[in-house]
Amino acid sequence: MADLSRLCIHTITTRPWSIELAVPYFADAGVRGISVWRDALEGRNADTMRHLIERAGLSVTSLARGGFFTAASAADRLHAIEENRRALEECEAVGAPLLVLVCGATPGQTVADNVDQIQEGIEAILEPAESAGIRLGIEPLHPMYADTRSAIATVKMANDLCDRIDSSMVGVTIDVFHCWWDPDLQAEITRAGAAGRLFSYHVCDWKTDMSDMLNDRGLMGEGIIDIRRITSWMDDAGFDGAIEVEIFSTRWWAEDQVSFLNEIIDSYTRCV
Ligand code: ZN
Asked: Rounded to the nearest whole angstrom, what is the distance from the C-alpha of residue 202 to the centroid of ligand 1?
């Protein structure tokens, strides 16, 4: 029997399923964790969803996602901070101990200005995060998204920002899709681990024939990432949390999701 004790799946991975369908399917398959995307909670009572998840024997690893702190106008940046406060309230309601941050980037601003605005945004939600006991995970994104999605493009940039903010509630989320290419990856994972900042870990794969920058991620084993090696670096750095399968794929979403779930478990067992 495969060891699935650390396996967590994001609701977006099986996007055609509502959260009400995903939870029992995940639980029946032996999955232990679920990361909840905010769109999966839309029109629902988050507290009711928390009970649904708990009754199925799953635990919530994180809420995805907050962030997008940058904007040209102060009013828009304030609006983003309000939205992140609402995301923290959803974390509390659904029982998520971590809010994952896709930090944002605004075309036309310098990288330094984007990073300053991201720091201001995170600092503005530190107090509610601390009082609710919810950690904030800065997820560096692949530099192909540095124009509009995240000025934080490497684990080093995430670690440097953590140093600037200097709070035990702020750490790093490592996603193999975004970071596999980085020659400093092992060193920066080690650095984050030594500082107690390795908060979460996402897996999927990078296909060399990717047809879409966003929605053609591979299932583990379909691409070129040496996931086992990166997992061993995470382990060596002291990370013992969930291993989260996060796949955006129009190709997989078009398949029968029960078969896809079986494929996820098989590839997790073989490749992670
Ligand atoms: Zn991710």
From this structure: 5
